[in-house]
């Protein structure tokens, strides 16, 4: 191999892998379709293997291409980091921290952490994305965000978490959320059998909480219809607030009292929920991102009234 490849070729390759074809990839990259084709041809010539085949008029990645993708994404990201640094060499340039979080920590933890961060880093920008747990992990793994705050992954998202560092900042027990006039409010504890004949507003199948609830209900021999599915626990609570049904969620979401007509009851058997901070295992955190991560950890500790769980060596 004559080593003609560079990070730009890997950037083009990864863009094609995440596009519907060369035309879409060219549009995303701001180059011609011919330039994309030339870069792919060079990669195939240099590696000595076919990376794509043509099937029904569309490019289909080969097994070799899928094997190469994670490393190619790393190379492409290194190019992006270098370009980012080049454009922010001016000391007056504002630095940004991008955070993705799902609803409970977004409501209960992030506001106070961001407020404190703004006091100590007034010139830094914070960009916040509201996503479900699987998307948060994917965003961190793909280096689309600096920090992710969410639940540990369900088994189908393990590939994403393999590219992340993580540590736990909070532990909660899942609760049943009910409208204050719902008949189950009379119970001190809600069990799987109690849910039968009531409308349960479910979270998506890929949600880590859904995986835990599903396993618990199966063990109890309870099958619930999924007549209503909300994409986030915030959506669940919005419907419970109107007495549409009941939900099973992380109680952290209710810590600020934003849903005045909702009450909670313990759910048994116990289902433990963890909230964790995620960041790239490849890309080092900027000083700003590290500071915000520390404030998030401290805000989680203050919410529960205990000291932070000692993280692993970072």
From TrEMBL:
Supply the source organism's classification: Bacteria, Pseudomonadati, Pseudomonadota, Betaproteobacteria, Burkholderiales
Q: Which InterPro entries match?
A: LysR_HTH_N (IPR000847), LysR_subst-bd (IPR005119), WH-like_DNA-bd_sf (IPR036388), WH_DNA-bd_sf (IPR036390)
Using the record, list the residue span of the signal peptide; answer none if the entry has no such feature.
none
Molecular function terms from GO: DNA-binding transcription factor activity; sequence-specific DNA binding
Family under the similarity heading:
Belongs to the LysR transcriptional regulatory family.
Protein species of origin: Pigmentiphaga humi
In terms of domain of life, where is this protein from? Bacteria
Q: Which PROSITE patterns match?
A: HTH_LYSR (PS50931)
Keywords for this entry? DNA-binding, Transcription, Transcription regulation
Report domain HTH lysR-type positions: 5-62
BP terms from Gene Ontology: positive regulation of gene expression
- Under what name is this protein listed? HTH-type transcriptional regulator GbpR
